[in-house]
Fold each of these.
Amino acid sequence: MSNKNGFQCSRCEQYHDELPLAYGPEAPAIYFSIPAEEVSERTMLSPDLCVIDQEHFFLCGNLELPIIDSDQLFSWDVWVSVSKENFKKTLDQWENPERDQQPPMFGLIATTLPTYPDSQNLKANIHPRAVGRKPFIELEPTDHPLAVEQREGIPLTRVQEIAELILHGGD
C-alpha cells in the first residue's frame, strides 16, 4: 500500500516517488532469535501464520492508523501471539466465507515496531476479516503511543517520519 504522492526526504535530501502506507516484519520478533541452523526444524512460517516449537502460535494482522485529514489508513503488519485454541479456531475458519462474522479473539503483540517504545506484549483484540484479508488488530485503549495513534490518527508528516526511519535507519 502506498500513497501516490511522493515526498522530499529530510534524511537523504532526495525526492521519493511514493510514500509507503504499510510496513511490517516477515515474522514475530522471537523468530529472529532462533539460530539459523534451527529455523527449519523449529518453525513453520507463512505470510499469515507462524508456529515456533509447537508451543508459540502467531497470526499476522493489520494494525491500522487513520491518517488525519485523509480517507487513507497507515497499516503496520504486526504479529500477535494467540493461544493454541485460538490458533486452531483460526485454522478451522481459514476458508470459511463467513469467518468475518466470528467474534474477536485476544492476543499479545509480538512485533517490535520502530519509532515506538516497546510494543511487544501490548494487549489486542484480533478481528477476523473476509477470506484473503489479514485480521484487523485493535489495541487495548492505553496511553502507549501506538494505541493513542490508533485511536486519534496520525498526520501525514508522521507517516513520512516513519518512512524516513525505515528507509534510512536510525532512531
Note: The first helix runs from residue 39 to 42.
Amino acid sequence: MSPYKAILLFGAPGTGKGTQGALLAQVPGLHHVATGDLFRALDKQSDLGKEFTNYSSRGELVPDRLTVELFLQSLVQRALEGKFQRGRDILVLDGIPRTVEQAVALDPLVQVLGIIHLTCADQEAMVHRMRQRALKQGRPDDADESVIRRRFEVYRLESQPVLHHYPTNRIHDVSALGSPAGVLAKIMEIVAPILDSNSVNPLA
C-alpha cells in the first residue's frame, strides 16, 4: 500500500501543538492525530496505561516501539470507523515522531510532506502556559514544574534532533507567540499549498 501522507506539527512543550492540531482538524482533507491524547485515553489499569503513566509522571518519553505500535493501531481503527480515509486525508501528526528512531521506523510508512516547526525563544512563557493548561485540563503530568522542565530537557536531547532527519526545505518555522487564530493563519499559508499540490479533494 502507498504510504500515509502527513504534515508534522513539531516544537518544544508548550508551543501550542495540540491547540493548532485541533484547529487544523477542522480543515477538510486533514486528520489530526495526537499521540499524547492516545496515551491519555488508555485504560490506566491496563499494562500499557500503567507504562504510560510511569513515564509521563517523570516527564520522559514512552519507548519508541510502544509509541509507533499505538499510533499505527489507531490509524487502522480510525479507518475502520470511517473517521479517516487513506489516500484522501493528510495526517496532521502531533507527538510522533518524537525521536530519530521513531522517524526511521515511520519512513517506509509515512510520507512527510511538510513540517510546521512552532518556535518560542521564551521558555518561561511556555512553562507558564503549560501550568495554566494543567489547571484547566486536569493534566497532572504538566502540573509539577520540575516535570515540565524535565520535558524541555528531554525535548532538547531526544526530539529536537528529529528535525535533522528531514530535508531542510520541508521545515517551516512558525512563531508560537500570538493568538491561536494568528498562529493558525501563518500555518495555513504553508498548509494550503500542500493540500493543493497533493490534489486533496475532500468532496470527491
Note: The helical segments are 17-24, 35-40, 47-56, 64-80, 100-106, 123-137, 145-159, 180-197.
Amino acid sequence: MSKSFTATDLEAYLDEALPAARMAEVEQALRDDRELAAQLTTINARRDAGVHSLGEIWRRHRLSCPSRERLGSYLLRVLDQDEAGYIQFHLEVTGCRICLANFEDLKSRQTDEPATVDSRRKKYFQSSAGHLRRR
C-alpha cells in the first residue's frame, strides 16, 4: 500500500469523510497505484462481508458529529467553552465535510435578507396548508 495513505484514510475515502483535497489525492493515487487499488478492494470486500471495526462504525454513523442544532448554537456563540472548542476542532482540524456544509448553510441563512426569510416562511406555511389541525 502507498505509504502516504493508511487503511483509515481508505476507509474514510469510502465513506466520503475526507476533506475534498485529500479525497482528490486518494483518487489520483488509486489511478496510479494498482497495489493501493487492490487494498481498497480488499477493504470494500471486508465491509460487504459485514466485518467492521469499532472505528469504522463510529465514522460511518458520524457519532462524533455535532447535531445541526449544536452547530447553530456554536454559530450563535451560546455554547460553553469546552463544547465550542470541540466543534471548532471538528470543523477546522477534522474537516468533516458534512458538518462544514451544515455550518455554511446555517451561516448563509443567518445573513439572509428579511424579504428572503419572509418568502421562505410563506412557502413553509403554504406547503403545510391542510396539514395543520384547527382547534
Note: The chain has eight helices and no strands.
Amino acid sequence: MATATKKQKKSGTQLQPLGDRVVLRREESQGKTSGGILLPESAKDRPARGEIVSIGTGRLLDDGTRGSFQVKIGDRVIFSSYAGEVFKVGEEELLLMREDDILAVIED
C-alpha cells in the first residue's frame, strides 16, 4: 500500500498518521452572513469540511494485510462535526481522525 507524507508549509514538520488515520486541514469558516453581516469569532460555526493532508498505511485486516484508503491526499471531504483530535503544527491547526469519520468526498 502507498504511504503518503506531506511536508507542512510553515513549520517543516512531517506528519505520518498510523493505520487508518488521516490528517486534514479544516476549511476557513465564513466571516459574513449571506445578508452581509460580519460575524465575530465566537459566532462562527466550525466547518465540517476540509482537505486531506496526509494518510496512514491503512487498516490492518484479519489476514495481516493492509486495507486501502477510499480517500487520497488533496481530496476535499465532509466529516462528522465532533470527529478527530485538533492539534497545532507551528501556527497551523490540523485534525487527526479515522477514515471512518469521513462522510463524503466533495467532487468538483
Note: Confidence is low (pLDDT under 50) at residues 5-10.
